[in-house]
Sequence to fold (258 residues):
Amino acid sequence: MKKFAFMAIIFLLWCSGCASQNEHLSIHETAISKKPLPPSDFVPRDYIIVSVGDSLTQGVGSDEEFGGYIPFLKEDLEKLKGVNRAEFINHGKRGNRTDHLLKRLQEPAVKADIQRADLVIMTIGGNDVMQVFKDNLLGLEINKFIAAEKDYEKKLNAIFSLIRSYNEEAGIVLVGIYNPFIKWFSDIKEMDQIVNNWNRVSAETAESYPEALFVPVDDIFKDNEERLLYTDYFHPNTRGYELIAERIYDMLSAAELL
Fold:
């Protein structure tokens, strides 16, 4: 009987120890579950950035060893602690207008690249304005630009919609146009107004789409004492592209599109 009582006491003590250990383990597990998750940039990752549009994307006017704004932007992005590597895929083509870009976006290679992109950057619109000049050299009137502006807005919306249909999550950046036209058409006082109107349309279009951003650059070329245009007085030079890249980077960071 005494032996049985002794064994019973040992068993109860053992059960008590197990309960205490389980209680401690439960508290420990609960403490682990309450720890905050690591930040999104804890493990740097690769980003795919697709550039589409006109000669500013192609990099016309920059030194041979540079490719427009892309090398500068790539260097800036890869300094971010959340970015391991920024891979740029360049589909820029000199002379492209919005109608050209709409067609090129439907090419299988361009579509496939956008589908896997984290970010899409566009430069478009400058050649649309130049086309109005070419079509109306003998009678330039601001109402001709207003009519073309409506067509530009329609095509720009089609471009945004097509990109978004390929990729619902990628950020979309539209770089604005600037005014080099005054070099040839100094007698047209409305040129600044025309460029401002087209940039306004671009900004409003970008704002109507999720995860989209308009980046103005006209003030960079208007208010800067540096020589920022190439020898053709139309395209940016290497320094001009560097400043465009800085503006894109600053606004990308502020908008947290990456």
Remarks:
- Confidence is low (pLDDT under 50) at residues 1-32.
- The longest helix spans residues 2-33.
